[in-house]
Amino acid sequence: MKTSLLNLASQEVPRYTSYPTAVQFHQGVTEKTYTGWLQNLPQNQPLSLYVHIPFCHQMCWYCGCHTNIVSGYDRVQTYVGDLLHEIELVAQKIPDRSNPVVQLHFGGGSPSMLNSEDFISIIEGIKSGFSFDKAIEIAVEIDPRTVDEKKIAAYAGAGVNRVSLGVQDFNLAVQEKINRIQPPEMVQEVVKWLRSAGIYAINFDLIYGLPGQSLDHIRYTIERSLAMEPERFAVFGYAHVPWFKKHQQLIRQEDLPKTNTRMQQAELVKELLVAAGYIRIGFDHFARPDDNLARAAQTKSLRRNFQGYTDDDCDTLIGFGASAISALEQGYVQNDPHMGKWRKSVREGCLPTVRGLGLSDEDKFRRAAIMQILSQGQLDMAALCTKFGRDVDALDDAIPKLQDLPGDDLFHLSGRKILILEQGIRFSRNIAACFDPHWQPVAERHSASV
Ligand SMILES: C[S@@+](CC[C@H](N)C(=O)[O-])C[C@H]1O[C@@H](n2cnc3c(N)ncnc32)[C@H](O)[C@@H]1O
Ligand code: SF4
Fold it and tell me: Is the overall model pTM greater than 0.90, yes or no?
């Protein structure tokens, strides 16, 4: 593998689930700012809602999510009560509650930690504050170790029609090194329950670059997964950020695959999934050709939000729960990640906003360029400049940065048009970063690009 490509693969770049990224958020955006934005929500604009459940039974040592380990259920129960209150507080700020909710996503942590009664009470709480669209997609992230057949039936009864299962890797040797023992048979059984409850839209989350993981482990994980026929795969490179997530220090540096191996692992995943008929979506998703995400990729309507690639076209995403981020046309707001402080605000009848960012026209312009690179793999800079009423050279500062990348193999740059090649898709984040004036190649801020 060329050294230039290896250097690029180990470069730390944002995941661009938002632009500007959360690094740019500041405390100048407050509850008052958020209230004003909510009060100005355009009538009838479709909404996407996100509910964060920051609890798990056991810490996976690789975990980069915002979660808390609990042994009993008391803290979860208390949280649900406060969450319902927060939902009500936010709903009250929206003048016309007829905006159709087209997407409702439960993420975490592990939303599947909720018992069925609490899960249903959250859905009911949302229904009383918001209007559900008839075709609403209700999605839940499931840790297969936390569900049984009854819970799955309750999900189906509550309208859940999409799920994502945390699979990661099927080999015991790898599972031991990440503190997550989860036999393939367990996942197989959950898939069976889901399908018999009528939930067919199933995603598997997999990770490469895990400690002790070899190419054979990857091959085995993919083969066992394919036998279960999920509709989608999200395949993440392990983001090792031990300076930020201290428990990752339990993973020994010497057990981690080197960049060269990570690249081969990512390539093997792609080969096996594409050979099995899955369509590659952006830099980390794969979907069956009849899946909505694959259709969105084909019709160039694919987008990115805090959950990664999505086919939802909402300009407004409202997040509930500790640490949740909301995205509105005016900007981003983040809830307090500290559970106690989040709870205190909610109990005092205040929105738990701690930081955020108001979007300038320049931010929106740059965001459009970055999202097009990541979602469509191409960008006509001049056309985008014209669309935003800018001079055609307004993005030209990216050109020398693009020229510094090992471009022959990754993309074609012709005038102001850039087209990412098949072998460049994996490096889309590096390419997108050329359009990000905030990004700097500093260590210990983001994860490696591949
Ligand atoms: C909120 S979890 C999914 C639901 C549930 N908590 C579970 O793990 O089964 C989201 C996903 O993020 C991915 N993930 C978590 N930490 C990661 C890391 N450090 N690097 C890459 N992917 C990570 C895992 O694939 C995980 O399934
Ligand atoms: S990966 Fe999922 S189950 Fe594991 S600790 Fe993180 S959020 Fe919890």
Answer: yes
